[in-house]
């Protein structure tokens, strides 16, 4: 079997690296194509060592642009590679413009498309990621779902064939990289286990709206009077705090530079809980056995909020949600929501049937 994997963003590189190990084990030929949509890897050498990340066979050099430009350019250049290589399957990941471009090329050339991380749904329906994932799901032959809720989402849209609950490949990553989690920050700031919370805020609806950002910082300031708040701050958030003159609300918060994956996971696994608007971190907190307050109107990981593990919060209700978490520690149906850490193995076996 010959397969083309199309990637375009940093998380997709990591997911592909996990699957690549399984492809090699099963004797499947993989051609790796990088669209060039995001070209800042910013990964530790440990990733390359542990995951043996391979160099792309093709780099389309798309770069940035409007949604139409990125999707269109990727389709044009990717189609040339597909026509040259003649793969049996095209594999795409997640919900980027690269994902949709690859799915459209494959479906129009009548080559089966496999979608890793299928079935995720989130409001609002007009957000670019939601459009990309819905359209990709509807033209894919193999739909590999990270949770049972994702399979149910597809069923509601009358997609039932080729749907598999495989688990989340990011859990595979978490388990592989856990021995390398970096606790340097914990030691540097003399943090005690379960006596601090980790927060990240970077979404435009939270940072670019002065009243929302002010409310969030005021809530974090309230929380800091009871427990230390550690805030690896995104450049956009830092810039807005200065622009909106909100520094007065950050005096009691430990503001630090952004962290890479290994340092962030080292910090999270010793924390009490997490406050975030990051799609990835709210799920990674679950992997680490930590609950999260999600400062978003909705989440792509609804299975965690439905199970009562994570809670959604409005900007001015974070402290109330913290009190709720602290007083409601018993939650149900939270084991193995994202599988057993063997998602990569399951996906490759299903493709190799």
Automatic annotation (TrEMBL):
Residues 25-351 form the UDP-N-acetylglucosamine 2-epimerase domain. Keywords: Isomerase. Gene3D superfamilies: Glycogen Phosphorylase B. It comes from the Bacteria. InterPro entries: UDP_GlcNAc_Epimerase_2_dom, WecB-like. One of its GO terms (molecular function) is isomerase activity. Belongs to the UDP-N-acetylglucosamine 2-epimerase family. This is UDP-N-acetylglucosamine 2-epimerase. It comes from Petrotoga halophila DSM 16923.
